Structures are given as structure tokens and as C-alpha cells.
């Protein structure tokens, strides 16, 4: 039997694999600048030419962007599932908002379940920081803008996805981040106008979800996340029904041309 030669792997290929893993796991995020070449070579324990070769391979794959005199960056288009024009189109359609909530119902319940099971101490630190930022927005009632609150809410849910250690869930949530943020902003505007207790309910729901994850209560985390999205769905359906009743009443007030 003829045995072929074993091809020796290039050092740059090992560096490529490490950087790809860091991108996939979210250690390196879209748009983030890589450390300086010298520092990164020292971190990996490799020569600068080998690192440079690895970077060039990742640039060719579209994972990195190299800027002349400006360093190397993770491509900011990674995970961008929706373009800005499509975001604007979806934002203005109530049926798209409902569809996103249905999608979030399953996705975020699973994220919460796995986060409660798998979160590391570092994940819990990040989750605490995101939760504190959200609570700070709630505390500034009437002063924090809907956009600020929406961004803080979305970042909290993104932190949960990161703590789930499920790469597909993480990058799905990350790819939907802008759409999720806009969905939250749209939702809270209508919810606060319709029900006076909405802010209190959202505060309590996020607190309960945070506690369940931090305490490792996976089943409770999944249930609370599901109940949170269900509450939002119920309130928004009530708002849409109110809008339909108003539209019918306005039509009755208009004279019919003959």
C-alpha cells in the first residue's frame, strides 16, 4: 500500500484557526479593531510575519478588513442579516413586528435556558453590567429616551445570548440586534401609552429573568423569558384592537358620498 506524504501545517493556519474561533465565539466582534501586530504576535507566541500571513488569509475570506496605516478590524458586516433599508421597511409594518415577537418567543426562551445552565463567572459579570444599565434607564423614568431604553433592553438580551454558549443562537441574536432594538423601541412606545403598569411589569419581568439565570434555574429562566414575550404580545394585540376600533368609529363619522 502506497502511503502519501503528510503535509505539514503552516503556522499561519493555526493562527487563522485561533482568530476564527475568537470571531465565532464573539471574543472578537464585528467592527472591533485587533490589537497591534506586535502585541498580538506576542499573545499568540508567533512571529510577526506568520501573524501577517494569517491576517492576509482572513482578509481574503472577508472576515477581517485591513486599513492602510489604521490597523486590522473584524468585518463590521458579519452577522448583519438585515440591511438598513429592510430595517426601515420592517419597522413600519405591524405584521412584521408580530412576526419578530413570535420569533423571539422561542429564541430568547432557549437563550435564557442555556444561559442559566452554562454561564461562567465572566458571563455573569457581563450580564450584571447589562442588567444594571437597563435598570438605570428604568430609574430615569421620563428622562431616558425610548431609543436609550430600547438599546439597553436589546443589549441585556444579547448578553443572555452570549451566556448561552450556543454559537448559532448568539449570532442569530447578534445579526438581529438592530431589528431587535427597533422592535423594543416601537413596542414600549405603544405599551406605555396603553397600560400604566407596563413599566412596572417590564422591570419585574427583567428582574425575575436576571435572577433565574444568575441562580442557575434553567427551567424558570425559560418560562420567565417566554412569559415576558407573551406579555408584550398581549399588550400590543390590545393596542392594535384599540386602533381598529378607533378606525371603525372614524369611518362611521364620515359622511357617505352618493
Automatic annotation (TrEMBL):
Keyword Oxidoreductase: no
Name the record gives this protein: Pyruvate dehydrogenase complex repressor
PROSITE patterns: HTH_GNTR
Protein role: Transcriptional repressor for the pyruvate dehydrogenase complex genes aceEF and lpd.
Compositional bias ranges of the Basic and acidic residues kind: 241-258
Domain HTH gntR-type: 9-77
UniProt-annotated stretches for the region Disordered: 239-258
Pfam families per UniProt: FCD, GntR
Amino acid at each position: 500500500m502506497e502511503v502519501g506524504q503528510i503535509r505539514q501545517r503552516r503556522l499561519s493556519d493555526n493562527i487563522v484557526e485561533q482568530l476564527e474561533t475568537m470571531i465565532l465565539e464573539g471574543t472578537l466582534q464585528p467592527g472591533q479593531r485587533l490589537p497591534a501586530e506586535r502585541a498580538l504576535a506576542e499573545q499568540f507566541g508567533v512571529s510577526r510575519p506568520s501573524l501577517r500571513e494569517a491576517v492576509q488569509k482572513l482578509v481574503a475570506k472577508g472576515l477581517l478588513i485591513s486599513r492602510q496605516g489604521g490597523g486590522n478590524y473584524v468585518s463590521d458586516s458579519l452577522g448583519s442579516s438585515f440591511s438598513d433599508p429592510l430595517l426601515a421597511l420592517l419597522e413600519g409594518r405591524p405584521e412584521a413586528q408580530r412576526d419578530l415577537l413570535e420569533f423571539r418567543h422561542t429564541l430568547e426562551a432557549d437563550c435564557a435556558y442555556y444561559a442559566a445552565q452554562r454561564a461562567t463567572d465572566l458571563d455573569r459579570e457581563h450580564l450584571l453590567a447589562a442588567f444594571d444599565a437597563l435598570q438605570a434607564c428604568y430609574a430615569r423614568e421620563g428622562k431616558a429616551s425610548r431609543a436609550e431604553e430600547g438599546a439597553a433592553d436589546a443589549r441585556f438580551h444579547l448578553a443572555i445570548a452570549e451566556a448561552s454558549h450556543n454559537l448559532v443562537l448568539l449570532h442569530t441574536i447578534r445579526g438581529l440586534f438592530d431589528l431587535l432594538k427597533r422592535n423594543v423601541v416601537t413596542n414600549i412606545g405603544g405599551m406605555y401609552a396603553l397600560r400604566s403598569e407596563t413599566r412596572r411589569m417590564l422591570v419585574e419581568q427583567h428582574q425575575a429573568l436576571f435572577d433565574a439565570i444568575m441562580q442557575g434555574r434553567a427551567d424558570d429562566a425559560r418560562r420567565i423569558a417566554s412569559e415576558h414575550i407573551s406579555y408584550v404580545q398581549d399588550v400590543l394585540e390590545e393596542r392594535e384592537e384599540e386602533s381598529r376600533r378607533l378606525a371603525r368609529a372614524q369611518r362611521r363619522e364620515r359622511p357617505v358620498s352618493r
